[in-house]
Design a protein that fits this description.
This protein has two domains: 25 residues; 164 residues, no CATH class. The protein is 24% helix and 12% strand. It has a five-stranded mixed β-sheet, sandwiched between helices. A two-stranded parallel sheet has the order 1-4. The chain has a two-stranded parallel sheet with strand order 3-5.
Length: 270
């Protein structure tokens, strides 16, 4: 029997979506369309993506700036000097008379400032001016302050206001062992104050102060005597001539100084 050729099977036609009612065919959903009821989210902005890192950097910056202010405040000096006084020649006295030791200084007033406040003095060492008001910060205890102890002018200027005397020394001259021993023994070698008769232990403070033109200086309100050496005799004479004369004297026998108000004087220093 002869074989008849097999006719090729017809290719299946692509299926089409059934027509929707009304004759139009439906279009399959695109891949970009949302599925399962979920909506696509927009990409986050850099600010939102790195928000935590930005907050951390800002917080660290605040801490660093605050720490810098604290450090600078702690390390800054408690006072400043616009200038350092220049010693003037001691005045000559009449024959057989004792010259008035020391030089007069400009009155810087006597305003009270809060303890811890920074004060800039027109000149140093100050013999008047703004000062702390409240013991033991001002007036300060009348004793010897070693080179490692702090005695601020804002404190001992208040001592001067009450007619007391302050003896200052600077380093290195006053800071070796022998100089420190001599300074510590100074109070015991000085007589009582001239008008109130207070012992030196109650009326004289001895403190380090490096803003001096000479190694040593003795101060009362409105007057300073500069010394190249620790001259006990000269300090005793200076006290007898000028101590107990602050604007707020400590005893009835004292003579009030010429500083009736807290305002600075307009008279320049000679």
């Amino acid at each position: 029997m002869s074989k008849q050729p097999r006719s090729p099977s017809p290719k299946s036609a692509p299926t089409q979506a059934p027509a929707a009612p009304g004759g139009s065919a439906t279009t399959p959903p695109s891949r970009s369309a949302t599925t399962s009821g979920r909506t696509a989210t927009a990409p986050r902005s850099p600010l939102r993506r790195y928000r935590r890192a930005i907050i951390g950097v800002v917080a660290a910056a605040v801490v660093l700036v605050g720490g810098a202010f604290v450090f600078l405040g702690a390390s800054a000096p408690a006072y400043a000097c616009s200038t350092v006084l220049t010693p003037s020649p001691e005045p000559s006295a009449a024959p057989d008379a004792t010259p008035r030791l020391g030089q007069v200084t400009r009155d810087l007033g006597r305003a009270h400032v809060e303890t811890g406040s920074h004060v800039t003095y027109e000149f140093c060492p100050p013999t008047s001016g703004a000062h702390y008001n409240g013991e033991p910060n001002g007036p300060i205890p009348t004793r010897f302050y070693s080179q490692k102890e702090t005695a601020l002018p804002q404190g001992w200027v208040h001592n001067l206001e009450h007619g007391m005397m302050t003896v200052l020394y600077r380093c290195p001259e006053g800071c070796d062992d022998s100089a420190q021993a001599a300074l510590e023994a100074l109070q015991a070698q000085l007589p009582p104050s001239p008008l109130c008769a207070f012992p030196a232990s109650k009326s004289v403070a001895v403190a380090r102060f490096d803003d001096l033109p000479t190694p040593y200086a003795a101060l009362v309100w409105g007057r300073v005597m500069f010394l190249d050496s620790l001259d006990v005799s000269a300090i005793a004479t200076f006290s007898a001539q000028s101590a107990d004369r602050g604007p707020e004297p400590e005893c009835q026998n004292a003579v009030p100084g010429a500083s009736p108000s807290a305002a600075p004087s307009a008279t320049p220093a000679p």
